[in-house]
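User: Here's a protein and a ligand (adenosine-5'-triphosphate). What would the complex look like?
Assistant: Let me lay out the input and then the predicted complex.
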Amino acid sequence: MRFEQVDPDRLEKLIEINTLINSDYSDPRAVLQRIVESATDLTQGEASSLLLVNPETQKLYFEIALGDKGPQMQNFSLDMGEGIAGWVALHNRSLIVNDVKDDPRHRADIPQQIGFPTDRILAVPMRFNERCVGVIEIINKKNGREFTNDDLQWLEIFANQAALAIQHADNFKRAREQISVLQDQVQGERGYHTLIWASKAMEEQLGLVERIANTDSTVLILGESGVGKELIAEQIHLRSARNAKPFVRVNCAALPETLLESELFGHVKGAFTDAVSTRRGRFELADGGTIFLDEVGDLPLPLQAKMLRVIQERTFERLGSSDSITVDVRIVTATNKDIESLVEQGEFRSDLYYRLNVLPLRIPPLRQRPEDITELASFFLTRFSRETNKNIRGFTDEAVETLLSYSWPGNVRELENAIERAVVISRSDRIDANDLLLKMDDPVSPERYTGQPLKTSMNMFKAQFIRAALGRHGWSHTKTARELGVQRSYLSKLVKDLGIQKKGDSAE
Ligand SMILES: Nc1ncnc2c1ncn2[C@@H]1O[C@H](COP(=O)(O)OP(=O)(O)OP(=O)(O)O)[C@@H](O)[C@H]1O
Ligand SMILES: [Mg+2]
């Protein structure tokens, strides 16, 4: 291409895309989408797609498909050499096919699959270091015109930009993964978990954690089973000045009363039959650091009295001894029980409850923080694929849809198990909805909303109902509004107000 021929519009688009590639590594799909959109515009195509070669399976996947049937195409793959895109990938060469029906390389069933009559195709390889990493295809030139060599040369430039964008994003992702793997390992070796979150709700709770970390006040962490209470307790310790000292965990529900008492406060030789030697308790071990009393709602009543004294005076005696021991310990407690009703039933001392409840932290259930679902799912996917040496790239759109519409009664613990299971049984490079083995619950079942105000429940139902309808219509607001019998603008408002998100899109 000679310089004086350069079309200023095309040049401007190219510069714009170049800037984009160099500015945003974190969302490669958005960058690719922009590249394909611009390329389609500039070549006056009617539709287009971008396919990527998966190096392991040597198949081509539709990463971006523009046009009405785009969303349907994303689960469709081609072998190398199959169809026009496959030919381009295999031979690493561009093609202009101005009469598709007469071309033996064309697979007639593909336009049927996309439901898009294809007359002409312009297809170019995306090259990185001479290797073909994907293909961009433009389908049909507007007004029935033919694609030209000029179109092809421009598309090649765009395709190379796209290859570069992928490479950047890959490097970025790999670096970020390595960092999080290292963090995960370092934390793991120190006995701590890696905390993952993306939601506003968790952001708020962590803001509180940050503020209370450096006080010595007793904390009570509340929330359903599996929401991550223990991880929040760890964060309180890790973000405090005590973080170099021990974080000692005690599960108050795991031991019978006497053993628990000796576990907490220690015993002297001969204090009871099995007490063959003197032993220090967990409170002593935690001196200078933090003690985490998990399932504090299960603390037996006699120990509740002792605990009250420890909280007030930081003083206790080992079992069988009358010598008082004083420690410097931050007390963090947690329970998934409804502790107020335990107080009403007389199973939990009210004076202890008031002491614990000075700083309550309520961790919302997972179903109320959809942004965390996708973030956690990716985190567990990375962890388990590494552990099982499987190379799984992500989730299909249906799988993400399933993750988001499930109610997660077992919260993060259940999500973690579901992803582990899916990684084990998956035979593809993306987790599919079927791999998750989730029994989808009935969106209208009242049990799903138990324990929540009517308004919250109604909004949850609305969000789920609308998300499902949007899913059926490839996320088209116009079509969905028609089905639901509402104005498009009203639907858009609901989508915004209810925070309904497509796949892993973040709230911002
Ligand atoms: N935000 C998070 N990021 C990463 N992992 C999490 C997160 N929240 C929970 N998990 C994981 O989920 C599992 C359950 O978390 P945790 O043990 O803290 O729950 P819990 O609230 O204490 O539940 P229970 O009331 O049943 O004891 C753990 O394996 C934990 O690693
Ligand atoms: Mg727990």
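Summary: The chain is about 45% helix and 15% strand.
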